[in-house]
């Protein structure tokens, strides 16, 4: 698990550098992004008892991955190596036991902790991971996919405002779900294939 943490932390660092070369020293408010993503997750899951709602679990799980992006970013501090951070993350899971929280309750606990600590709790995130019935392999596979999508967005004008997020009436996130379902996450060229598949769909849209 530690090596997988190191790999994902390295990918996140590269993504953040693409947005701002000195992102660690900027001390961005990652906690704010975390609790807002928690709100978006609950929107997809449903909370309105006064109307019929069916959870969109594909989108819920993508929000979990978005939270993981911001959560890992919040753990970076100047002078610490990826291995140091991975060890800290692993340490938070020593003796971890899932207490059976529901999706909304686990999400709210994580959001509340982020607001109070202005940080990120790996163990509370693990509660959410379990609540949405994702395992570590799911986290890794979907994280890599969403990281690639984030790179793709930046390469196609996301920061400049020229990127087209709606593809044929659906968000790019929804296309990503379909692409990931078709690919082998154990393949050595997994991330490259995800990028190429996104590019093919996007080019057909903008051609």
From TrEMBL:
Superkingdom of origin organism: Bacteria
Classification via SUPFAM superfamilies: all-alpha NTP pyrophosphatases
InterPro entries: dUTPase/dCTP_pyrophosphatase (IPR014871)
Protein name as it appears in the record: dUTP diphosphatase
Native species: Oceanicoccus sagamiensis
Pfam families, per the entry: dUTPase_2 (PF08761)
